[in-house]
Amino acid sequence: MFIRKLGALSVTGLRRTGRLGLFFVTTFFFAVTPPLKFSQLLKQIQFIGFQSALVIFLTGAFTGMVLGLQGFYTLNRFGSAALLGPMVALSLIKELGPVLSALMVTGRAGSAMTAEIGIMRITEQIDAIKLMGLNPFRYLVVPKFLAGIFALPLLTAIFNVVGIFGGYVIGVKLLGIGEGTYFGEMSNHVTVQDIVQGIYKSLSFGALIPWVCCYKGYYVGYGAEGVSKATTQAVVLSSVLILFWDYILTSALF
Amino acid sequence: MKMFNEHGIRGRAMKKFDLELAVGLFIIAGIVCLGYLSIKLGKLEIVGERGYEINGVFSNVGGLKAGAGVEIAGVTVGRVKTITLKNYQAYVVLSFPKGLKIQEDAIASIKTRGLIGEKYVDITPGGSEKDIEPGGRIRETQPAIDIEELISKFVFGKI
Q: Residue B92's domain spans which residues?
C-alpha cells in the first residue's frame, strides 16, 4: 500500500514537472516566432514594470538604508567604516537587488497573473479564445513572459540606484562618512562584471516569474477555491525557485 | 449621443496615451539607472578610450587586479587594464590619459593601501628627457612586497 502511494506520488510529481517544462518550451517557441501582440506587451510592461516601480522604490530605499546602518556598525568594529560604500553597493548589485526585486514583483504582479489567467480558465474564456482561432499562448502568456524579461532588469537597476542613495543618506548624512569616501571607494571596488552578473540574474528571474505564475494559472483547479490555491502555490513556488536558482547561478557561473 | 461617443473616443485615446507615457517613463528611468551603475560605478568605457597604454613586467604582482588604480604622487591617474602570465612573469598593461607623459626611467611599483587594503600601482616619475611611447614598456618595476616573507626574515634574523 505504502509502496503504491510512493509510486503514485513520484509519477504525479514527474508528470507535473514535465508539464511545467513543456509549458516553458511552448512559451519560448511562441515568444521567438513572429506575430507578437505588441499592444498586449506594452500593457504588460506597464503592469509589471511601471506599476511595480513605487514598491521597488520603497523597498530599495529601505534596504539601502538598513544596509548602511548595519554595515556601519559591523565595519566600525574592524575600523574599516570607509568601506561602507562598496559593501552597500556590492551586496545590492550582486545579490539583494535582483532577488528582492524579483520577490516583490512575484508578490505584486505574479499573483495577479495567476489569478487573471486562472479566472479566464474557470470561466472558459481560454476555450473561447481557442474557439475564435486565436492562440491563447500568444495572446496571454507570451506578452507577460517577454514583459517580465524586459522589466525586471530595469526594476533591479532602479532598486540598486535607490538603495545606494539610501545607504548614502544614512552613511554620509547621518553617520558622517565622507561623501568622497563613500562614492570613491565604491567605484574602486565595483566592476563591470559585478553589474553584468546582477543583470543575468534579474533576466533569468524575469523569465522565471511569468513562467511559473502563468503555468499555475493555466492549469488551475476548479472554482474559486482552485484559483486561490493556484495563486498561493504560484507565489510560493516562484519565490522558492528564485532563491534556489539564485544559489545555482551564483555557485555555477560566478 | 454624439457627445457621448466623442467623449468615449477621447477617453480611450487618453488611456492609450497614458499607457505609452507610463511605459516610456519606466524605460527611461530604468535605462538611466542602468547607465549610472555601469558607467559611474562599473567604469564601463562607452565613448572609447582617450589615452594610451604602457606595459610592464613584474616578478610578483601579489594579487593586483585588473581595474586597480595607477597613481602618481597619490593621485589616481590611470587604471590597470589587463594582467596576464608571460614566461612565468606577470605582464601588466596600464592605461594612462593622453596628456600625461611618463619618463623612460620612471619606476612602477606595486603597493598596498594600508595593511590590508587593496593593491595599486605607484609610478615614481623619473628625470629622463625621453618619454615612453604609447605601447612601450616601463623598464623599472618593483614587485609587491610580501609582508609574510619580510616578517619571517626578521624573525629568523636574516635582515
A: 51-144
Which among A192, A195, A196, A203 is the top mutation candidate for probing chain B, defined by the most B β-carbons within 10 Å of its own β-carbon? Answer: A192
| Prediction pTM value | 0.76
Q: Is residue A22 part of a domain?
A: no
Q: B67 in a domain, yes or no?
A: yes
Residues B129 and B64 in one domain: yes
B101 and B44 inside one domain: no
Q: Report pLDDT digits (tens) over A20-34.
A: 899 899 888 888 888
Give the minimum alpha-carbon distance from B158 to chain A in angstroms, rounded to a whole number. Answer: 33
Residue A58: per-residue pLDDT: 94
Domain span including residue A144: 37-253
CA distance B147 to A95: 33
Q: How many distinct structural domains can be found in chain B?
A: 2
Could you tell me which residue, B32 or B11, shows the higher pLDDT? B32
Best of A191, A193, A202 to disrupt the B interface by mutation (most B CBs within 10 Å)?
A: A191
Considering only CA atoms, which of A66, A68, A106 is closest in space to residue A214?
A: A106
Q: How far apart are CA B50 and CA A56, in angstroms?
A: 37
Q: Do the interacting molecules here have an ipTM over 0.85?
A: no
Whether A32 maps to a domain, the answer reads: no
Contacting residues of B for A153, CB less than 8 Å apart: 30, 34
- 3-state secondary structure string across B98-130: CCCCCECCCEEEEEECCCCCCEEEEEECCCCCC
Whether residue B117 is found in the same domain as residue B43: no
CB atoms within 10 A of CB B12: 10
Instruction: Record the cell numbers describing residue B144, joined without a space.
Output: 609587491
